[in-house]
Amino acid sequence: MTTDSDYSGMDTPVRRRSRLWNRRTASIGACVAAVSGAAICVALRDSAPTMTVDRDSITIATARRSEFNDYIRIVGHVTPASIIYLDAVEGGRVDEKLIEEGSQVKAGDVILRLSNTQLNIGILQSESNLAYQENELRNTRLNLEQEHLRLEQERIGLQKELTRKQRRAEQCTRLYDKGLIAREEYLTAIEESLAAGRCMSVLSERIRQDSLLRASQLKSLDDNIVNMRRSLQLVRQRLEDLNITAPADGVLGDIDAQIGQTIARGERIGQIITPELKVEAGVDEHYVERISPGLHASIEREGQSFEMVISKVYPEVREGRFRVDLSFCDTRPENLRAGQTCHLDLRLGDPSTAIIIPRGSFSHAGGTHIYVIDPTGRSARLRPVRLGRQNPLYYEVLEGLADGERIIISDYALFGNNKRLKIKI
């Protein structure tokens, strides 16, 4: 039988642990768990596809907050602002060629002299007809004047006769009242006086109507003479049109006319290139909604910048491009010539402050991701970004990058689908 004294040497007293010890143990466990989680995240992150690249094989740029200029670069061709075509108003044979192609001309300078025998004959005939008609009109005017004078003379004679017969009628009346003449003689004198008065009235009405008709006829004759003279002037102008003259100042273009050549009426024989110049440029259809007349552009020539403005936008879109015309605002380069090619910066809007990155040959997932270098400069990770506007030098970054972050802008095609790059320095 075993007694309690037998177990007295085997029992060990158990010390109860304090609460402070339990809290320390919990804190250590939490730290271990956090470190383990971080290690797991790092392990998972580092497990992303990785590629090692040399520092010298990539191009690095820095995102920065700066002024973004919204413009595009376009290529244009210098052309004359206007071309005036020379057409033969009258046909004829080329007798003289006074100015050669490429020469400067002033408005009114004679370039070609033509001859037209039929036109000369027609002018002579028109002049002869006019002379004949003017002579006929003069004769008609003379006859009217003579008729008018004859009527006036007739009225003078009739007035004299009327006065004499009225005086005789008065005398016969007094004598008849005294019984000194017969009744028949008295009545005859009265009747002759009345008849002379009626004849005078008829002649006066005739003269009045003749005066009205004469005035109308003379006006019509004068109008006919004026019209005939105008007609002759137009015919003579046709003779002047045989001289082909410059309608404006400029440079004489190609002329399709030689001495002895016969040119038909209305045939195009050359052109005048005005000294004013414009630039015709093609723009990508992507900007069709942003381009309108009044937008400004600039051209660099010999270290100087010259301002231009869009004067016309053509509505047709062909092969993904549409055309615009630009004119110079103030001055233009002195050595600019038609046919030259020039590069212009077309401003689409006002400058604004934004995060910008240089343009490069990088492209990945449609430009929606960019490799961002960590602060150590030894690795880079692919980060989603959102790009906005662009100009020939920079992209505008709307989301995904901060001021001062460094990025890789060289070609991404060599990096494949790797999300992470190790940079070997």
Give a quick precis of the structure:
By secondary structure, the chain is α+β, with helices and mostly antiparallel strands. It has helices at 4-7, 19-46, 117-178, 183-240, and strands spanning 50-54, 60-62, 64-68, 71-80, 83-87, 92-97, 104-105, 110-115, 243-245, 250-252, 262-263, 268-273, 277-284, 296-301, 304-318, 321-328, 341-347, 352-358, 369-373, 379-384, 386-390, 394-399, 406-408, 420-424. A hairpin with a 2-residue loop joins β14 and β15 (304-318).
How is this structure best described in words?
By secondary structure, the protein is of the alpha+beta class. It folds into four domains: 49-68 and 352-424, Beta Barrel (conserved putative lor/sdh protein from methanococcus maripaludis s2 fold); 72-81 and 276-347, Efflux pump adaptor protein, beta barrel domain (Elongation Factor Tu (Ef-tu), domain 3, Beta Barrel); 88-115 and 242-272, RNA polymerase II/Efflux pump adaptor protein, barrel-sandwich hybrid domain (OB fold (Dihydrolipoamide Acetyltransferase, E2P), Beta Barrel), CATH 2.40.50; 117-239, Helix Hairpins (Orthogonal Bundle), CATH 1.10.287.1490. Helix content is 36%, strand content 32%. The protein is built from four helices and 24 strands. The protein has helices at 4-7, 19-46, 117-178, 183-240; strands spanning 50-54, 60-62, 64-68, 71-80, 83-87, 92-97, 104-105, 110-115, 243-245, 250-252, 262-263, 268-273, 277-284, 296-301, 304-318, 321-328, 341-347, 352-358, 369-373, 379-384, 386-390, 394-399, 406-408, 420-424. The chain has a six-stranded antiparallel barrel with strand order 4-13-16-15-14-17. A four-stranded mixed beta sheet has the order 1-24-20-19, with no helix packed on it. β14 and β15 form a beta hairpin. α3 runs antiparallel to α4 (183-240). The longest helix is centred in the middle third of the chain and has 62 residues, at 117-178. The model is unreliable at 1-21 and 38-45 (pLDDT under 50).
